[in-house]
């Protein structure tokens, strides 16, 4: 992570340095509009959660691929919150941004809003955090550029994502230890 240049620093040189050492959140951020189709509905006439998840994964993977400029795979998914049913009339807006990078992994947050086309009313419909891993030509994890944090909001997201990464690492090492002791 790099921090924002001080106010007194000349704008252009600071930006050049920042680009040389990493990528900003804005450089890879994604916004996708999608009009749900009838085949994406559940029996109650709302968008099926599995279809929504597919669009979330697509938006997240594009942000991760933009950040790394590599082929990426989804390593894991955390905190999928479905907040409100999504009616088939209207559009969903998926906003994905990289929140944290490790060596080869990137955590991406995806926020879904639903807009009623007749009233213009927009609601927060779902949120999800996913981890992607960049791969080299042999399919092995490959280092990605550092993430440049440019605003207090991005810093807040970065801190939250760091906490989640810490929890994930503890949980993964516990699982590995349990598998070892079970002889798997
Ligand atoms: C994800 C994958 C590439 C990790 O490979 P690996 O050999 O276990 O690699 P490592 O243990 O060295 O971990 C590499 C990175 O992935 C992260 N990672 C691995 N598994 C993870 C998981 N379940 N959740 C979050 N991050 C994970 C590690 O923390 C590490 O991050 P870092 O480089 O930033 O420190 C591998 O498990 C894989 O290919 N899985 C299948 C992916 C897939 O098919 N997805 C669905 C379709 S896209």
Question: Can you walk through the features of this model?
Answer:
- The protein has 184 residues and is an alpha+beta fold.
- It has one domain (11-181): Hotdog Thioesterase (Thiol Ester Dehydrase, Chain A), CATH 3.10.129.10.
- The protein contains 4 helices and 7 strands.
- The chain has a 5-stranded antiparallel β-sheet. Strands 1-7 form a two-stranded parallel sheet.
- Strand 5 and strand 6 form a beta hairpin.
- Bound molecules: coenzyme A (COA).
Order of helices and strands: HEHEHEEEEEH
| End-to-end distance | 37 Å
CATH topology: Thiol Ester Dehydrase, Chain A
Number of helices: 4
Query: From the alpha-carbon coordinates, what is the Rg to the nearest angstrom?
Result: 19 Å
Name every ligand kind in the structure.
Answer: coenzyme A
CATH architecture: Roll
The number of E-state strands comes to 7
For CATH, the homologous superfamily is named as: Hotdog Thioesterase
Oligomer: single chain
Determine the fraction of residues in helical runs and give it as a percent range. 25-40%
Main pleated-sheet profile: 5 strands, antiparallel
Content-based structural category: alpha+beta
Determine the strand fraction and express it as a percent band: 25-35%
Low-confidence stretches: 1-19
CATH class: Alpha Beta
* Neighbour order of strands in the largest sheet: 2-4-5-6-3
Mean pLDDT: 89
Tally of domains? 1
